[in-house]
Amino acid sequence: MSVVTEVAAAADAVLFPGFARRRIEVGAGVSIPCVSGGDGPPLLLLHGHPQTHAIWHKVAARLARHFTVVASDLRGYGDASRPATTADHVRYSKREMAADQVALMRALGHDRFSVLAHDRGARVAHRLAADHPQAVSRMVLLDIAPTLAMYEQTTETFARAYWHWFFLIQRAPLPERLIEADPTAYLRDVMGSRHAGLAAFDPTAFAEYARCLSQPGAAHSLCEDYRAAATIDLEHDRADRAAGRRLAMPLQVLWGQSGIVQRCFRPLDEWRRVADDVRGGTLPCGHYIPEEAPAELLAAALPFLLAD
């Protein structure tokens, strides 16, 4: 076992006691690590930026009372593979990242599952549900409006608050070089500037975020996620809109009442433009819902996820 693997396994043992740690080959030289535990219908948990599956440590045990929980890293994040990039950013498109997760769940024996996803993971979940509707039974998305809507409705307020969206898409290697100069400072600046500051983050989890972002190539793959979101992902979203493709599965959208999504968008209205069965509302927190308001998240999401 490598030193990196030992450190990751030790962190998972603290954050997800009783969960099994696996690494699954999902094709084309890409492998995805995950932790899994519990019993019942399968539930996939997807994290956001600039984090890893560790964001779910405050809710995983409770969810595992009802579900077989799988919390994974996204391609390019955490300890997941970082495929070589191309000029069109396709290898970090949400389509490719979603396909990773479908392959992961199938490898674990789950052809159909529910999804609970935050931030970038929620954007991957949106594409997963659009491309693989037969795989998704229910979906909970945290603190996002659809990517296309957010870009098309960008205001000064949004751009100032989500400055990293526009920084990370700059041509390589400018943003990579600045992040790599001090990855932990980048985390503190991005995460600490939100509603709850850094107080919401468990030290073990934060250390995992810092360890993973400090790995060679991590800053580049993170930037490629955002470059794809500003290019090829928008093409895919516009193609769905032009074709009239909509999400049919039940969808719950939850967002922080003290966050930028609440201030700049109407999330329910935007999701109803792309999905047929949408409900949800605010939670008393900012952006990092699973870590800021785990009890409130569970109170809102569990009844929805457990519904027939």
UniProtKB/TrEMBL annotation:
<keyword id="KW-0378">Hydrolase</keyword>
<dbReference type="InterPro" id="IPR050266">
    <property type="entry name" value="AB_hydrolase_sf"/>
</dbReference>
<dbReference type="InterPro" id="IPR000073">
    <property type="entry name" value="AB_hydrolase_1"/>
</dbReference>
<protein>
    <submittedName>
        <fullName>Haloacetate dehalogenase</fullName>
        <ecNumber>3.8.1.3</ecNumber>
    </submittedName>
</protein>
<dbReference type="Pfam" id="PF00561">
    <property type="entry name" value="Abhydrolase_1"/>
</dbReference>
<feature type="domain" description="AB hydrolase-1">
    <location>
        <begin position="41"/>
        <end position="188"/>
    </location>
</feature>
<dbReference type="GO" id="GO:0018785">
    <property type="term" value="F:haloacetate dehalogenase activity"/>
</dbReference>
<dbReference type="InterPro" id="IPR029058">
    <property type="entry name" value="AB_hydrolase_fold"/>
</dbReference>
